[in-house]
Amino acid sequence: xxxxxxxxxxxxxxxxxxxxxxxxxxxxxxxxxxxxxxxxxxxxxxxxxxxxxxxxxxxxxxxxxxxxxxxxxxxxxxxxxxxxxxxxxxxxxxxxxxxxxxxxxxxxxxxxxxxxxxxxxxxxxxxxxxxxx
Length: 133
Known about the structure:
The protein is mostly helical. It is built from five helices and no strands. Helix 1 runs antiparallel to helix 2 (35-56). It is globular, with a radius of gyration of 15 Å.
C-alpha cells in the first residue's frame, strides 16, 4: 500500500501519541502494582514509537517480530541509536510475552520498575528522530 506524505504523517503522529498514552498508562498501573499490565503498556509504548519511526521512513512489518528486526537492522546495527536501545526493546518484548502468555513465570515489581526509565529514554530518543527532517 502506498501512502501519501499526508497519510504517512498522520499515522506517524497517531502512533507517537499512542506511545505517549501507553507510557502514561504504564506509570498508572505501576502505581497500582499491576506488574503484568505495566509491562504490557511499557512494551506497547516502545512498540508504537518504533512503529512510527519505521512508517516515517517507509518500512513496513507484518508482525511484532518483524518490527523488532527492522528496528534492529535500520537503527541499531547502523548506530543511529545505541545498542542499549536494542536491549531495552528486546527486554520489554520478553517481559510482555512473559506477562501475557507465560503461566509459570511471574512479573515482579523490580522487573517492571527497572524498565521504566530506559523505556522513557527510548521513546524520547525516537521522538528526536521523528522530529528530524
